[in-house]
Amino acid sequence: MPQLLRGYDTVTQITALANWLQHRQAPAPQRLWIATDPDHTARATLLARIALAGRGIQIQPDPPPTPSPSEHRKLLRDSLRLTLWRFTGSTGAWLVPKIVARKRAGCGV
Asked: Which of 58, 65, 73, 81 would staple 31 via disulfide (CB 3.0–4.6 Å)?
């Protein structure tokens, strides 16, 4: 699963997961559980639902927790990035190369 290790933020990790699920030989799972820290779970769950919409995969927990006030801005930003990805195949990361380079270096990608 090296392709799943390429994500350097929530959006790129979820798009890597979606691409991996689409191209693997085995049937797609029926249920996917998002496990991360409590504050991040709400955003990651909602973003996974956007990325995997229409694939028949239930994203858990259901319902997702309510995002904290600090997560609302990130949720809006990342929702827009995933919507862009669904239509173009790009998350728009190329628009902010310095931020991407810092994030990639920070997680060793």
From this structure: 58
CB-based contact 42:58 (threshold 8 Å): no
* Count of other CB atoms within 10 angstroms of residue 86: 14
Tokens standing for residue 81 = 């990035």
Question: Residue 33 above 80 pLDDT?
Answer: yes
* Strand 58-60 relative to strand 31-33, pairing: parallel
Tell whether the model's pLDDT for residue 85 goes beyond 80.
yes
Q: How far is Cα 43 from Cα 79, in angstroms, rounded to an integer?
A: 9
Tens of pLDDT, residue by residue over 50-74, are 888 788 888 988 787 888 888 888 8
Cβ-Cβ contacts under 8 Å for 72 (sequence gap 6 or more): none
